[in-house]
Amino acid sequence: MALTILITRDVEDRYRGFLSSAMLELSPGVYASPSLSARARDKIWDVVTGWHAQLRNGSLMLIFPDSRADGGLAVRSLGSTPRKPVRLDGVLLTLRSNP
Q1: CA 64 to CA 41: how far, in whole Å?
Q2: Tens digit of each residue's pLDDT (9 = 90 or more) over 46-99
Q3: Residues in contact with 63: Cβ distance below 8 Å, sequence separation at least 6, in sequence order
Q4: What CATH number does the domain containing 6 carry?
Q5: Cα-flanking dihedrals φ and ψ of residue 17, to 5°?
Q6: Rounded-to-integer distance, Cα 79 and Cα 77, Å
Q7: What is the pTM of this model?
Q8: Per the structure, how many domains does the chain have?
């Protein structure tokens, strides 16, 4: 179990209620949990993925430690985010969209 962060952008209120029940809302749309199990994290991601597929609104990004991933972080995202995680030569970088 390790720190998990989930960031939402332009999503419906149902996300806020659901995520607040499992994680601490640090700032509007930013949720964190210091001890979320992998099973709970995957269940939360399954729920929000289903909602996003149905509602097609906003974006979400999930960040958590993964020793097998480049840079030691795993990143999952849904929707159109202003920044995209990319891996380059074994390093995790952020690519900003060009307006």
Answers
A1: 9
A2: 999 999 999 988 999 999 999 888 778 888 989 876 677 777 777 777 777 666
A3: 4, 5, 6, 7, 73, 74, 75
A4: 3.30.70.240
A5: -60, -45
A6: 7
A7: 0.82
A8: 1
